[in-house]
Design a protein that fits this description.
Chain lengths: 372, 372
């Protein structure tokens, strides 16, 4: 195995593969990146046994890749990335000296890194699942930023730690929930499909970090695994087992009152009372009437507050509702619009939160019973 | 106690006082900021019992401070800072409602924070020590950035965790050492003085963060404490007990050989081998002759490297010397010059490291015995 390449391209490919590498990997070999030099390309693979990333580079004018001989090796991810990032040269040579010694060569120096044989790297099946749909990077980012935050971070029900992608006809519904709140993004696809899969939020965030703007994303999935393919990179992950809860049922559809707010004003008003927590939970009370909308917070040991929203309007009977402040902040952050509508079905019923101008994203938050 | 003030000025004063507040304070009252409203000014005090900061504000056109009634209270530092930072208003009112309830008032809201009585705040003696000298903010920054990093971070000899300021005549010598290396900055003062005090590196870094560009710093000290006074702010700290070691003796003055390097080139060459550590120590070997200067690193389990410096010159007999790489990196970072000179007195003797164009800063690093 021997090749030379533009340093920045090598760094880019190693960084992409390294995204899947975890320092807490169960298998020691997985702390490395598998570098497989073939006749016409170099393939880089990184994995933490749940998520695997494979990316390739072929000789081109810009990357100045020259392959002298084939072969493969597994190099410790943090060592190789650190040195390739810090080298001062334009072109770097890489060579396997014996079974496990990798030599990097620059104009002025040589760097030998003890590595391990490619045989020790576990086999990862990158065969392509059958189901297929396409998203633009922008659509994908919208989905992740408006749903992944609502997933559960507890291990008790693994399926809730992911976003459910359900396609029926040409409609894609993406839902994240931890049972106290729901975040949903709906998109139209170009072709009809049937899918019902749940993808770990961690995988989705990894894919988002690896995306470049120019690519469309081909998504291949079956019941076991999913592949995101863009450019010369494949990110593959197991799907989460278990049945995703039937979240459609909790989305309220009939309303008795509505609150419209300036998104930024409400966000900042809630955020500045964030230190008034009871048992580490930030509860806010919305006191709504047609005359005024007030936010009241009371934390026994810390203090209390009462603030009137300047730009808010309420239609319906007066109502007081207590909510988890961080859920509302998360929802407002994800909606991003100028104005947000909270639609109420009645005391203690789930509340639907939406941008007033964009019906494709909706949040549902369940109120908290309050005793004051 | 009642006043109103421009929000940004209040935030600025609270942040300054809060710099001395530590969440790990031995006294619960010290997690607060003492706000003392007098007829003509408000005085803010924060302390962690070692370092204390006092800053004041008097009514002015810009800060719109209006004092309605005097009084004092101790408010939890993190709560008051958090809310004042996040308020949307220009002017904020603050009022003590009874002994311990502090009310902030804005156009649309009120925020009550449970606080504690000013009586619970410990007495801090801000009386002025007799000795006095003056530094410009730039001189002060130079001293801290070129000496504090070399102080010891171990508790075994407290005096080594500070920078020694020794004035004899009109020369100020500032020295930091952990016994393996020394960093020294020398400055000329305007007047003659005699001082020999050691100031904790933590205090110096705090003062550096609080400085604004326009002020000169008046430094008052006796054998027990030091005060840095600039604008309306006093930062006061105990001095470190113990005799600072006689570091002058280890600064070599006669040399048999000299190495001149491009500072950045050497820094980057050492930095990129940083992952090759033996028992978590990064040892580098400089192989010097008139023909070539090479850096060699060998870490049994990780690998080895050999790189030739392009822009380096050596005068003297060929020599190999092993150094702690992080000490050299620290020294080069502090020297900042384009070219750096390493002056050698002989094998295993302390090495003097200086910017080729600035004799006011010098570093001494002791070589490591190496067995290969």
């Amino acid at each position: 195995m021997k090749f030379s390449i533009d340093r920045r391209y090598l760094q880019d490919k190693l960084s992409t593969a390294a995204r899947a590498v975890s320092p807490f990997s169960p298998l020691p070999a997985l702390s490395g990146i598998l570098i497989d030099v073939r006749e016409d390309r170099i393939v880089f693979t990184g994995s933490d046994s749940n998520v695997a990333i494979q990316t390739a580079i072929t000789p081109g004018e810009m990357n100045r890749l020259q392959i002298e001989s084939t072969g493969s090796v597994c190099v410790e991810s943090k060592y190789i990335l650190d040195i390739v990032r810090k080298l001062d040269c334009d072109t770097v040579g890489m060579e396997l000296m014996d079974y496990t010694l990798v030599r990097l060569t620059t104009e002025n120096g040589t760097f030998n890194i003890n590595s391990s044989s490619a045989d020790e790297y576990p086999f990862i099946d990158f065969s392509r699942p059958q189901g297929h749909f396409v998203l633009s990077p922008d659509e994908f980012r919208q989905i992740v930023s408006s749903t992944a935050f609502a997933c559960s971070d507890k291990d008790s029900r693994p399926v809730l730690s992911g976003v459910n992608f359900r396609i029926a006809g040409n409609e894609l519904h993406c839902s994240g929930t931890d049972t106290y709140r729901l975040a949903r993004k709906t998109l139209q696809l170009n072709q009809d499909q049937t899918f019902d899969i749940t993808i770990s939020a961690r995988t989705l965030n990894e894919v988002m970090k690896s995306l470049s703007d120019s690519d469309s994303i081909d998504i291949f999935a079956d019941r076991r695994k999913i592949q995101f393919v863009f450019g010369k990179t494949i990110i593959q992950s197991r799907l989460l087992d278990g049945t995703f809860p039937p979240v459609d049922r909790i989305i309220p559809t009939e309303f008795v009152s509505r609150l419209t707010v300036d998104t930024q004003e409400l966000f900042r008003a809630i955020d500045r009372t964030n230190f008034m927590k009871n048992d580490n939970v930030h509860l806010i009370k919305l006191d709504c009437s047609e005359q005024a909308v007030r936010i009241k917070v009371r934390a026994a040991e810390i203090g209390n507050s009462d603030e009137r929203l300047k730009n808010a309007s309420w239609t319906g009977e007066p109502m007081s509702v207590t909510l988890n402040g961080s859920y509302v902040l998360d929802a407002l952050k994800a909606l991003k619009g100028e104005q947000t509508e909270f639609a109420f079905s009645g005391q203690l019923k789930p509340i639907r939160i939406m941008d007033t101008k964009d019906a494709s994203t909706l949040m549902v938050v369940v109120p908290v019973r309050s005793f004051d």
